[in-house]
């Protein structure tokens, strides 16, 4: 069995940062110590770099099946690995949407062949597929996705009887997109009736804070009533942050929340320069919201950081506001975005690992991942946090070929990415197409 020793790196794990060596054999970490030596092992010198667990992104849209002109599981998983994301959980709003167990399995079949990262897929809910939803196996499916506001894919669940049924009967995690559809429609009609030409500057007024708070509050109350395991995705307002608690350890929380890197990194001042490139649902809002979301990440009200990676073609994004789809590609630079906060002194390296690696593993009860512990799968990222680069479309692995970060200076050179003990990415290049593994979940 081939062995690899990662030596001299600053290992960030379980709230501590210390120089340690890591030995990998087969798919797992078999030893961690201060000075490991084995003449039969390949050695990677990580001196001057951080060594951290692979990032687990709990919200991506890889567009396959049906929307392969935008992205595929193969292309986007490669971009993910290049960005240090070794495991992803993908959303059901493909074409057709994953609303039956058979359609869900089709996606797993594609990933088992094409995904270079580890993978899981959400079962989609609609107004009329409750029986299919309740057949979902929580041991090998990450959760159920409920769109409580319309987004790309038209999977809105707005029937209160259906929502009651899902929240009262489902026995695994429910992840929600929370925006109140009636509020959105009212805001849109009001602006249209004024006669103005709508642009991306109007997006946060249409997909407003009131709509987000109303829907998130409703989801939280449903979960409290039925003791449901609820995970509210992409928090975008300061008011929503106060729906969540930080006085309960994460393993015992029934109601959790996610922040996305674009709601942390951008605010509404960027619409002037980036326009539809940062049009997303829920909308990027004010600097005050941006600061409140970061504060909630730091104090534990928000439990994980993800991307909501959602690629569209550049031609689609350049259409007039009303015809331009919502979503932006980010998974290749999620770690770099958070390193920008680290270099500003806004977040510690230990907290980055907590929210992007440990937190998702605990929140979803993922087996054997999210930590650098002996016996865990060897999903490992080695990164030089100081090295700077300019984001260029020449280096992007997304099929859509663009990023809202183009031209921006970021830090963090990812030198190696291990997935299940295999080096998948090294020194700027993907070096292995070996498929990742299906995530499994230790749920009772």
Tell me what the structure shows.
The protein has 444 residues and is an alpha/beta fold. It has 14 helices and 18 strands. It has helices at residues 73-82, 101-114, 130-134, 160-169, 181-193, 203-206, 209-226, 238-241, 261-265, 271-274, 287-299, 314-317, 334-343, 349-363, and strands at residues 3-13, 16-25, 28-33, 42-45, 50-53, 55-60, 85-90, 118-121, 123-124, 144-147, 174-177, 230-232, 255-260, 304-306, 380-390, 409-419, 422-426, 429-430. The strands form 3 sheets. Strands 1, 2, 3, 4, 5, 15, 16, 17 and 18 form a 9-stranded mixed β-sheet that branches. Strands 9-10-11-12-13-14 form a 6-stranded parallel β-sheet.
Shape: globular
Share of helical residues: 25-40%
Low-confidence stretches: none
Could you tell me the strand content as a percent range?
15-25%
The whole-number mean of residue pLDDT values reads: 96
The major sheet is characterized as: 9 strands, mixed
Distance between the termini: 34 Å
């Amino acid at each position: 069995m081939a062995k690899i020793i990662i030596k001299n790196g600053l290992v960030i794990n379980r709230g501590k940062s210390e120089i340690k060596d890591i030995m990998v054999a087969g798919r797992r970490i078999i030893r961690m110590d201060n000075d490991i030596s084995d003449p039969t092992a390949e050695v990677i010198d990580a001196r001057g770099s951080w060594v951290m667990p692979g990032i687990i992104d709990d919200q991506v849209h890889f567009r396959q099946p049906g929307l392969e002109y935008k992205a595929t599981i193969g292309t986007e998983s490669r971009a993910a690995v290049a960005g240090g994301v070794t495991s992803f959980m993908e959303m059901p709003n493909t074409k057709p949407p994953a609303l039956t167990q058979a359609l869900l399995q089709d996606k797993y079949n594609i990933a088992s062949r094409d995904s270079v990262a580890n993978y899981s897929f959400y079962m989609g809910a609609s107004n009329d597929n409750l029986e299919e939803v309740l057949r979902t196996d929580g041991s090998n499916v990450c959760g159920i996705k409920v769109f409580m506001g319309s987004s790309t894919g038209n999977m809105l669940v707005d029937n209160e009887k259906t929502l009651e049924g899902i929240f009262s009967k489902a026995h695994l995690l429910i992840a929600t997109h929370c925006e109140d559809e009636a509020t959105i429609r009212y805001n849109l009609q009001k602006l249209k009736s004024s006669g103005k030409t709508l642009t991306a500057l109007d997006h946060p007024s249409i997909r407003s804070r009131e709509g987000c708070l109303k829907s998130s509050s409703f989801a939280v109350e449903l979960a409290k009533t039925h003791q449901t395991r609820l995970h509210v995705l992409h928090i975008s307002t300061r008011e929503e942050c106060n729906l969540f608690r930080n006085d309960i350890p994460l393993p015992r929380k029934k109601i959790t929340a996610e922040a996305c890197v674009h709601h942390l990194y951008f605010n509404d001042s960027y619409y002037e320069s980036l326009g539809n490139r940062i049009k997303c649902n829920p909308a990027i809002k004010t600097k005050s919201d941006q600061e409140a979301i970061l504060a909630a990440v730091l104090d534990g009200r928000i439990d994980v950081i993800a991307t909501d990676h959602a690629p569209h073609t550049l031609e689609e994004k350049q259409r007039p506001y009303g015809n331009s789809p919502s979503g932006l590609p980010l998974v290749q630079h999620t770690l770099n975005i958070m390193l920008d906060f680290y270099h500003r002194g806004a977040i510690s390296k230990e907290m980055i690992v907590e929210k992007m690696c440990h937190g998702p593993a605990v929140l979803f009860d993922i087996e054997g991942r999210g930590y650098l512990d002996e016996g865990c799968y060897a999903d490992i990222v080695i990164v030089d946090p100081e090295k700077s680069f300019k984001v260029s479309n020449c280096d992007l692995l997304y099929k859509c070929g663009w990023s809202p970060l183009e031209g921006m200076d970021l830090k963090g050179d990812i030198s190696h990415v291990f997935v299940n003990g295999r080096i998948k990415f090294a020194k700027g290049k993907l070096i292995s197409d070996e498929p990742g593994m299906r995530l499994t979940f230790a749920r009772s």
